[in-house]
Design brief:
This protein is an alpha/beta fold. It has helices spanning about 15-25, 30-45, 95-100, and strands spanning about 10, 45, 60-65, 75-80, 90, 110-115, 120-130. It has a single domain (about 10-135), classed as Transcription elongation factor, GreA/GreB, C-terminal domain (Chitinase A, domain 3), CATH 3.10.50. It has three helices and seven strands. The strands form two sheets. Strands 5-4-3-7-6 form a five-stranded mixed beta sheet. Strands 1-2 form a two-stranded parallel sheet. One of its GO terms (biological process) is DNA-templated transcription elongation.
């Protein structure tokens, strides 16, 4: 069985450290998600914030994506767990969708499991960078 090629990931250096710390904290309670996040971080290209390529999903970015299986289009803001509010469209990095989106670029697709472990293909339609206030 061949493994589909994975899209290149890009991540901001300070977010790398923060997400790695969060992944380690959830290792006992959510080992599979923790492992997936750590694996994604290991394959990511790390950049200074000023050098991150345009169109990359970072923390606090607004992301429009399509679930290729259902055709459903969603618009979410990727946030830290303390800021998550699904009713406001704020999705935590520590959810399957959040972990799958971080580091992807506009146009990328990735096969990623949902909460029940079913594979879904997520395709990034557009990425709006975080507001300047969120970058501090």
């Amino acid at each position: 069985m061949t493994t589909p090629s994975l899209p290149q990931l890009h991540i901001i250096d300070s977010e790398y450290d923060l997400i790695a710390d969060l992944a380690l904290r959830i290792d006992a309670s959510q080992p599979e998600l923790s492992s997936r996040l750590m694996t994604e971080l290991e394959r990511a290209q790390v950049h200074a914030a000023a050098d991150i390529p345009a169109g990359v999903v970072t923390l606090n970015a607004q992301v429009d994506f399509i679930d290729e299986g259902s055709g459903a289009r969603r618009s979410v803001q990727l946030v830290l767990p303390a800021d998550a509010d699904i009713e406001s469209g704020k999705v935590s990095i520590l959810t399957p969708v959040g972990a799958g989106l971080i580091g992807l670029s506009q146009g990328d697709s990735i096969l990623w499991p949902d909460r029940e472990g079913h594979p879904r293909t997520l395709r990034i339609v557009s990425v709006s960078p975080p507001a300047a206030a969120c970058l501090a």
